[in-house]
């Protein structure tokens, strides 16, 4: 299945096995290529398997990644490794890995020799349906996440569903939290299809369909607002809360779990602001619960609020949020009084109660 050509200007291949489409793509470019792979053993093994039959491939370079290593130092390490392996301006770089690989390798390709062609093979669910779509690449600094980067489109993206076989459950859940977020943005069938699948075991899920649907939602938003002047900000639904919970818990709460908490909190904030119906809020909570996502947290409200106050979305004294008006209608930049935010954070310390029912 190929998506994105029309909306983003580059193809996104959603495939059970990326081997054949990747080979045709590389052959079609008529260039030498080199593979950069997340050194995580399962990802590296997959990268090697994919590289075996690629035409004119200079080899596979394992790079040790992980969020704490998503730093500028990786760019220099990668550039040195590329030179040592004989890559030059006319070498196509293929990155293999999750979202960290996408952001790091994509930035390295954008900077190496002032920019060389890049394609990403996504191996985590989150990279398939979120990180590899939209051309944002970058690294973290000690001051925060993704602070150094740029917009740089790949030549193609391959969602290699085969790789999901080795992806830990916790990482599947991280990707699913973003899929729920996309489904709230799009509403309609996108949301209903997740509701229908949620009670079934993941092994039975039609991943191609789920990834393709989510990719199409993100691609449509990115197409309308690539540089994030307005609409693209709606992709941050739940994320102001999520970042606060991640940081206030000392990153013990994983991103996917934090996004699930953020989606409940955003829904409750919208409900209390009189703009989101109780029935729709309950639908979101029911879906998150069926997917095994957490709905409450032990992070004290005041700790989460303190973390949020440092968030860059705070302007002229009030916090701003991306909030749902309805499933299928989400608005960015909604100003909310501190007292209401704090009361929602207090409610988040317990499971959804009568006030939410
Ligand atoms: N550029 C964007 O628009 C965008 C959007 C969302 C998130 N991101 C970034 O994406 C990153 C998170 O992505 P992620 O969750 O994929 O993180 P990740 O790349 O660190 O992958 C998560 C873990 O799964 C492992 N892994 C990946 N594929 C695997 C596989 N097939 N089998 C076994 N293990 C596998 C990785 O080694 C890692 O340990 C963050 O840095 C975030 O900032 C970027
Ligand atoms: Zn996210």
Structure description:
The protein is 46% helix and 19% strand. The chain has 14 helices and 11 strands. The protein has helices spanning 5-8, 19-29, 41-51, 72-84, 99-111, 125-131, 169-186, 188-197, 207-224, 239-248, 255-272, 278-290, 301-309, 338-347, and strands at residues 2-3, 12-15, 32-38, 57-63, 91-97, 118-122, 136-141, 144-151, 156-160, 319-326, 329-336. Strands 1-2-9-6-5-3-4 form a 7-stranded mixed sheet, with helices on both faces. Strands 7-8 form a two-stranded antiparallel ribbon. A two-stranded antiparallel ribbon has the order 10-11. α7 crosses α9 (207-224), α7 (169-186) packs parallel to α11 (255-272) and α10 (239-248) crosses α13 (301-309). The longest helix has 18 residues, at 169-186. Zinc ion binds next to α11.
Number of helices: 14
Oligomeric state, counting identical vs distinct chains: single chain
What is the number of beta strands?
11
**Bound ligand species:** nicotinamide-adenine-dinucleotide, zinc ion
> What is the total number of structural domains?
2
Draw up the topology in text.
Layout: E1 2-3, H1 5-8, E2 12-15, H2 19-29, E3 32-38, H3 41-51, E4 57-63, H4 72-84, E5 91-97, H5 99-111, E6 118-122, H6 125-131, E7 136-141, E8 144-151, E9 156-160, H7 169-186, H8 188-197, H9 207-224, H10 239-248, H11 255-272, H12 278-290, H13 301-309, E10 319-326, E11 329-336, H14 338-347
Parallel strand pairs: 2-9, 3-4, 3-5, 5-6, 6-9
Antiparallel strand pairs: 1-2, 7-8, 10-11
Helix pairs in contact: 4-5, 5-6, 6-7, 6-9, 7-8, 7-9, 7-11, 10-11, 10-13, 11-12, 11-14, 13-14
Bound molecules: nicotinamide-adenine-dinucleotide (NAD) and zinc ion (ZN).
């Amino acid at each position: 299945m190929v998506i994105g050509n029309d909306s983003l200007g580059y193809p996104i291949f959603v495939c059970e096995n990326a081997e054949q489409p990747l080979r045709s793509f590389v052959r079609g470019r008529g260039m030498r290529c080199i593979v950069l792979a997340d050194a995580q053993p399962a990802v590296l093994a997959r990268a090697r398997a994919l590289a075996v039959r690629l035409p004119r491939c200079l080899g596979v370079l394992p790079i040790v990644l992980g969020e704490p290593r998503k730093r500028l130092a990786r760019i220099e390490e990668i550039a040195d490794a590329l030179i040592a392996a004989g890559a030059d301006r006319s070498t196509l770089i293929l990155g293999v890995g999750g979202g960290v690989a996408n952001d790091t390798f994509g930035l390295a390709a954008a900077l190496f020799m002032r920019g060389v062609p890049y394609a990403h093979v996504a191996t985590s669910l989150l990279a398939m349906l979120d990180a590899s779509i939209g051309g944002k690449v970058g690294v973290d600094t000690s001051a925060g996440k993704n602070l150094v980067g740029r917009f740089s489109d790949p030549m193609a993206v391959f969602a290699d569903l085969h790789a999901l076989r080795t992806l830990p459950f916790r990482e599947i859940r991280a990707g699913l939290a973003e899929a729920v977020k996309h489904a709230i943005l799009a509403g309609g069938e996108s949301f209903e299809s997740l509701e229908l699948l949620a009670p079934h075991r993941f092994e039975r899920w039609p991943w191609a369909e789920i990834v393709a649907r989510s990719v199409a939602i993100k691609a449509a938003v990115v197409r309308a607002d690539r540089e994030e002047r307005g609409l693209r900000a709606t992709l941050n639904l739940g994320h102001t809360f999520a970042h606060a919970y991640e940081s206030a818990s000392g990153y013990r709460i994983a991103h996917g779990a934090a996004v699930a908490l953020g989606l409940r909190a955003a829904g409750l904030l919208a409900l209390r602001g009189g703009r989101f119906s109780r029935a729709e809020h309950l639908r979101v909570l029911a879906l998150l619960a069926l997917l095994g996502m957490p709905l409450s947290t032990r992070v004290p409200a005041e700790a989460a609020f303190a973390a949020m106050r440092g968030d860059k979305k705070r302007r002229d004294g009030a916090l701003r949020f991306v909030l749902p008006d309805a499933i299928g209608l989400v608005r960015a930049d909604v100003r909310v009084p501190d007292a209401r935010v704090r009361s929602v954070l207090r409610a988040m310390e317990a499971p959804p109660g009568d006030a939410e029912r």
